[in-house]
Write a structure and sequence with these properties.
Rossmann fold; seven-stranded parallel sheet; alpha/beta; globular; single chain
């Protein structure tokens, strides 16, 4: 299974990918990572912190042609920003089983997704991959709200406002949200433990309940 973590801009997706990968592994899934971002932060973090799953460097517009995905594993991709690297995003969406759109509950992020000034709206990037896919349909896509105020859970404040706004716009939105905590913001290049005891563990549980994981 190939899960692509994507966003138009910097939205904490590298951090989310690393923590989510560890939560999956702690829950018993076999995990493999791919860094499809030229910054190579996901890959370098894996080396520095000695992740228990392998992360490969693969920032290429030929991902769909060059990567042979292993059976029985969940392959997680940290995708380069769609605004800057649309060709990489297009390649990944041709073969993705699931796309997770990482979005902070802010007007800036919402505009980047729904009404970019010059770039292609994220919805259209997802849709245009359909013609290249075997089933002729775009990949299933869910929104993960992150960098949320710890005092504003899913049913309150701006987190609720943007969750409902995205749902009204036709997006699938996870109930699980990721709070903006120093535990995540400052974890880069450090080992990750106990991920299943965090909201990333809640995300794994929600995805299993929704039938989004094998």
């Amino acid at each position: 299974m190939l899960i692509v973590n994507a966003s138009p801009r910097t939205s904490g997706k590298t951090t989310d990918t690393a923590w989510f990968g560890h939560a999956l592994q702690e829950d018993g899934f076999e995990v493999e990572g791919f860094d499809a971002d030229h910054s190579m932060q996901f890959w370098s973090w894996a080396q520095a912190a000695k992740f228990k799953f392998e992360v490969h460097k693969k920032a290429t517009a030929r991902f769909h042609e060059e990567v042979e995905l292993p059976e029985g594993k969940i392959s997680l991709v940290d995708c380069g920003h769609s605004e800057n690297h649309p060709q990489i995003t297009d390649s990944l969406f041709k073969v993705a089983d699931l796309v997770i759109l990482h979005l902070a509950p802010t007007e800036a992020d919402w505009l980047r997704v729904e009404r970019p000034v010059e770039d292609t709206p994220f919805r259209d990037i997802v849709k245009r991959s359909a013609v290249f896919r075997a089933d002729g349909k775009p990949p299933t896509t869910w929104v993960l709200l992150n960098r949320c105020s710890p005092s504003s859970p899913r049913d309150k404040g701006m987190t609720r406002f943007y969750a409902e706004r995205m749902e009204h716009a036709g997006w699938n939105v996870f109930t699980t949200v990721i709070p903006g905590l120093g535990q995540y913001a400052h974890s880069m290049n450090f080992p990750i433990t106990g991920a299943m005891d965090t909201p990333f563990g809640d995300l794994v549980v929600e995805m299993k309940e929704k039938g989004l994981l094998p």
